Amino acid sequence: MSTNLKLSDADTRRASIIAAALSVFAQSGYGSTPVAAVAAKAGISQAYVFKLYPTKEVLFVAAMERCYEIILETLTAAADTAPDGSPEGILEAMGEAYARLIVDRDILMIQVHAQSAADIPAVKAVVRRGLATLVRLAKARSGASDAAVQSFIAFGQLCHLIVTTDLTELNDDWAQTLWKGMSHY
Amino acid sequence: MSTNLKLSDADTRRASIIAAALSVFAQSGYGSTPVAAVAAKAGISQAYVFKLYPTKEVLFVAAMERCYEIILETLTAAADTAPDGSPEGILEAMGEAYARLIVDRDILMIQVHAQSAADIPAVKAVVRRGLATLVRLAKARSGASDAAVQSFIAFGQLCHLIVTTDLTELNDDWAQTLWKGMSHY
DNA sequence: CAATTTAGTGAGTGATTAATCACTCAAATT
DNA sequence: AATTTGAGTGATTAATCACTCACTAAATTG
């Protein structure tokens, strides 16, 4: 076909493939997104996606890993820049950083879809690992109590529910009940 | 084929189909479970499933609706039989009832998969409706504050995460952090 | 009993999709 | 200049899957 002016090496391609995978899987989940959609988004052939990632499962897991990587980086940075040094203050700063992170939805939706695909052992394993790192980070950097960290995660999950169902569009009282106080999301 | 001794009428069939759908969709989610699997579980032909439920989407939504129906029944009953009449006591009783309900996982997993499939408008609508009824019930029957009800839902979501990743199998400290105090689950 | 309605299926069909293969082309190496 | 290597694709394959249709057996009705 037409001459390709700029060739990327495999590692650059890998990066653009998982960027595409992150966004495409976030939209339709594991079972409902064809690998062809990832290839199209990345602007390369499906065949080459399969050359760099041998199965759809491997590709999805790679996207998940990138997702947790981003979350961890963001929360680590937030913990460092927390104005208030108190445990609750640091946890609060992490929560706000997470809120800002998930405005684009992809990071959030990948987690939702991963939970749904957790019957695949590799997926379950990565969710567990991501969660482990996240909990340990929150605990170590904030010094907050177990109960506070548990609550931190619980409200993160509530946030996922709110976003997937677009509850913020609704003015009903019940929706406000779930939404209230999570204003930064 | 062989003579069928006992024929059920359509409504009975419908009931057994959604019972099968509930269990099969709970295992592999919307995108990854073929309708043939539902038919097999119900012990009837795929063609007849499609006669009673015109599309896979309609079938899934029907299973979701049954799921919320069961949750609502259970929580309503729990609110009635709460020993302590205080708002927190009633909410606690509802939480425990929910915990007992989801030991079989199907009710829980359908919700997780529904959240993942919420880009389908009908699915999103039913999740919203189920959530609305649940929040209103919790509020009306317990009389608890908005914050308490919000927390009730948030910890329900945390519970979903714990179950999908089988965190109870793990003895690690971080897993205990998430798990602690939710002992009835 | 004849006619009609209801429950139910076997055998497809067309579309989609995960994965493979046989290639091409350009750049680096010898 | 000849050879190897690495990036990349078009075409295909084998399987799966949502959905349809022509049909039969049984129950119901008149």
Question: What's the count of strands of chain A?
Answer: 0
Overall shape of chain A: it is: globular
What is the averaged pLDDT score of chain A? 93
Query: Tell me, what is the CATH class of chain A?
Result: Mainly Alpha
So, the CATH homologous superfamily of chain A?
Tetracycline Repressor, domain 2
Tally of discrete structural domains of chain A: 1
- Number of DSSP helical runs of chain A: 9
Look up the CATH topology of chain A.
Tetracycline Repressor, domain 2
Distance between the termini of chain A: 47 Å
Based on helices, strands and strand pairing, what is the structural class of chain A?
Answer: mainly alpha
- Largest interface, and how many residues on either side? A-B, 46 and 46 residues
Rg on CA atoms of chain A, Å: 18 Å
> Per DSSP, what share of the residues of chain A sits in E-state strands of 2 or more residues?
under 5%
